Amino acid sequence: MINRRATKPSPTARSRRRRRGSAGGGGRGKGPLLWGVAALAVLSAAALAVSGGTPAASSSDSAADEPSTGGEESNRPSPESKPSASQAIPPNEESPDSVSSPSPSPSSSPSIPASGPGTFTTAGGGSGTVGKGARTLRYKVVVENGLAQSAADVADQVEDVLADRRGWTADGRSGFKRVSTGTADFVVRLATPGTVDEICGRYGLNTRGEVNCSVGKDVVVNLKRWLLATPVYADDVTAYRALIINHEVGHFLGHGHVTCPGPGKPAPAMMQQIKGMRGCTPNVWPYDTKGRLVTGPRVP
Description:
Layout: H1 30-51, E1 84-85, E2 120-122, E3 135-144, H2 151-163, E4 174-178, E5 186-191, H3 193-201, E6 213-215, E7 218-222, H4 223-228, H5 237-252
Parallel strand pairs: 3-4, 3-5, 5-7
Antiparallel strand pairs: 1-6, 2-3, 6-7
Helix pairs in contact: 2-5
């Protein structure tokens, strides 16, 4: 669910000079002219003294463009071979240039570090296997060092999402088991915007500090989206976190982006909801309560 102003410059101050000429010409016309020039010089000097000695300069202050992203949002990748940048940008998720910023106003936003050390702590323990699919995918949950979020708490939330009967286990093929040691099929990483950009950038994705991505064996979650969600989910951040996990894990499973199936219908989890709902109603799960896949037309 992929989610960028300028002010007009002030006019430059101008000075005008009046010329006075003698109607009569000859020597008698020079006296009034010289007195006028002298008076004008005095007035100009006084004006410069008041303004600080320099004329006013024109200026243009442009606010930095912000993506409308992210998260569950990447610019649609080829599910089998290409990474996905999600609020799930293009190149392989949604491009921040194409979305409106999902972030709340700075005054209401929690403090979010722009970058971190790039090292991670793995959540200890593990979970039982969920789902009865033909394959059980082992995964780890790691959190970048220095964050206020504990690896254990994030792991609990990820476990709950992947175990939900409306999640990917409903496909009848996939099972999940969280581990803290040994090999893992994929790793869920909660990281600062700068670290997300670095990891996703290695695969050619431009997450612009705004969105998540799924690359290689990494499901990379942007701390900004984890904490702020998007305007649609601002009152239910927990639901949006489920959308991030379902969307990015969906990419890992080979699912590409789809769009809204029709006005008033639930938005698919694989839809880049951060770019807009397109008439769909909010929904964060791949399947409904009856085990039916919630999907829509594929995004070309």
